[in-house]
Amino acid sequence: MxxxxxxxxxxxxxxxxxxxxxxxxxxDLKGSLIHWFGDVEKFNRMWRVQKRVCIVxxxxxxxxxxxxxxxxxxxxxxxxxxxxxDTALGLRIGPxxxxxxxxxxxxxxxxDVLHVLSKVYWCxxxxxxERRQLNSESGEAMQQVLNLTKPENFVxxxxxxxxxxxxxxxxxxxxxxxxxxxxxxxxEFERIKEGLALELQKYRxxxxxxxxxxxxxxxxxxxxxxxQIDHLKATSVSLNDPDVWKKCPNCANYRKxxxxxxxxxxxxxxxxxxxxxxxRHIVEHLQAAIQHRSGVGRGGGSGGDLGGSSMxxxxxxxxxxxxxxxxxxxxxxxxxxxxxxxxxxDRIVRLxxxxxxxxxxxxxxxxxxxxxxxxxHEKERxxxxxxxxxxxxxxxxxxxxxxxxxxxxxxxxxxVSYVSxxxxxxxxxxxxxxxDSQGSPSRAANFSATDFQASxxxxxRGSANPLQSYALPQALQQSPIRNSVASPSPxxx
Length: 493
Fold this sequence. Notes:
The protein is α+β, with helices and mostly antiparallel strands. 57% of the residues lie in helices and 10% in strands.
């Protein structure tokens, strides 16, 4: 057996009982969802005071006569502003309704009613109730801001009060449906996660296959280079080495053929046939050796040029030293013999000619050496350029892999955010079920208080489910989520 509700779980407001002093005319309201009940004074259009009983529920504020007949029913959702004085409370209500002014005996009663109205207004409209404080300093009066005249063709439509038992049943149904929706959302989330895991696994498998293919191609290139190096090493030995011919499979086969034919005539025939093949085989060995030597010469030519250049530079230094010695000797002759003889003149001519020849030779050798060094520097720059190109390509490849990884991570975050938004939307719309409860039948303004009914009419409880109008998001249209969110009305009926 369920316990009776003491407060509204949607707003947190306490549920009050009908006082004993009013049980005679308002006793049929027992078990209804009422947040405030008390005596007030109501001002009419002539600003005259009339005794009334005020009832505040989760939907409306009612003004009743002492005998229980309802004279006014105003929806809290339509209140535009609450105007407050010391003990009076004015409510500006939008059309088709009109304003209301009530006075309380105590300031606490006015504050309690204003607190209930603010809570219900927040739950219904999702925003704070506008509040204005009037005092002597503001220079305003209630007559200036309120219009208590009833509009033409106004009909006082009484909203039925709601039963706490019906609210309790609907809250239990809401919790049950929320649990079912939560299970469905969790199942859908797991399904999406599994689908994403398969997509990621497929993508990673494709990337792994591509990298494996690239690695295999690199290994193949390295193996080819190793085979070329082994071949060059095999052909770099001297051709006069007898081990070369012993290791040659062609020569070994020839020896086996000779040993397997002891007949002398057959051996001669085989020798003649194999001599031709041997000559061709020797030519192939020589060609391979020549190619290897030429390749080594091309690769090590720069080193040879440098070695030769260094030797030539040393020779040039010696020639320059010799020329310097001859110049000093020439200066010495000039100093010792101011009057040049023909012998001294011939000696000077020889020294000068030899010095000029040596300088020209030194200049040519130095120019050749500089050209060789420039060529080496150019080759070094080419090698550095190739290295930087390879390094840039590797760096770009790493950046592409990082970009792919970031895209996968962003895709995961988007999917998780999408599913979280779906779950949040379901939770928000399910919370609106509380505004959809069905109350007791309405009664006219001149009905007596004994006509109040706390329970919901059976024909209204069997009405069509307003939840059928809800449309699921695109991502969950294939899932078995039932129509368990609230209708556009924010209250349980």
